[in-house]
Amino acid sequence: MNDTPSQALSGSKKISTLFKNWFIQQNLPWDYIDVTSRSDCGPFSAEGIVVGGISSGADDNKTVEQRNRYNHILGQSMGGIPDIPEDPCYHKACDSIENINIFVYEKMIKAAAYALEFLGQQEDLRIWLYPSTEIQ
Fold first, then answer.
1. Is 85 helix (H, G, I), strand (E, B) or coil?
2. pTM given for the model
3. Residues paired with residue 85 on neighbouring β-strands, in sequence order
4. Is 37:46 a contact under the CB 8 Å cutoff?
5. By CB atoms within 10 Å of each CB, which of 6, 19, 39, 85 scores lowest?
6. Please, what is the average pLDDT of the chain?
7. Which SS3 state, helix, strand or coil, does residue 61 take?
8. 48 and 114 belong to one structural domain
9. Model pLDDT, residue 86
10. Per its UniProt entry, which superkingdom is the organism in (predicted)?
């Protein structure tokens, strides 16, 4: 979110915090990742639209620290393999339903459902997402 325009920064941080807190409450590991122009939400962020979400991995390499932390929380051998892409099939032909980690898939669905329900219950989502001085 380094390049996120100021009118979207507060709401984007709120969404990130919403997901972070859910993963912490579920005793699940998480890592913060920046929204980049490579991301599907990058163009929205660039226009000042609040964005936020979750990712189960892409083509960035998993670090030894991440693997160790994930193993510590999830159990031995659940932390993945360091020094290779988090998702070796990211945007490749092998990126198919056979490549889905069911455990991760279920947790991501629950995290997304939690966030959608939380956001849907806001009396005025626009006010929650954007500082009142930014609403026109």
1. strand
2. 0.85
3. 61
4. yes
5. 6
6. 88
7. strand
8. yes
9. 87
10. Eukaryota
Q: Do 29 and 9 belong to one domain? A: yes
Q: Would you state the structure tokens that stand for residue 55, as one six-digit string?
A: 């990712």
The tokens of 85 are what?
């892409």
> Which residue do the tokens 């919403």 mark?
18
Asked if residues 19 and 115 have their Cβ atoms less than 8 Å apart, the reply is: yes
Same domain, 13 and 29: yes
Domain that holds residue 90: 57-100
HSE (side-chain half, CA atoms, 13 Å) at 11: 22
Looking at 31-40, 46-55, 83-92, 108-117, which range is the least confident one?
A: 31-40
Do 65 and 130 lie in a common domain?
Answer: no
3-state SS, residue 27: coil
Q: Do 91 and 77 share a structural domain? A: yes
CB 80 within 8 A of CB 62: yes
- The domain tally of the chain equals 2
What is the amino acid identity at position 60?
A: D
Token code pair at residue 100: 């889905």
Residues 24 and 61 grouped into a single domain: no
Helix, coil or strand: residue 98? helix
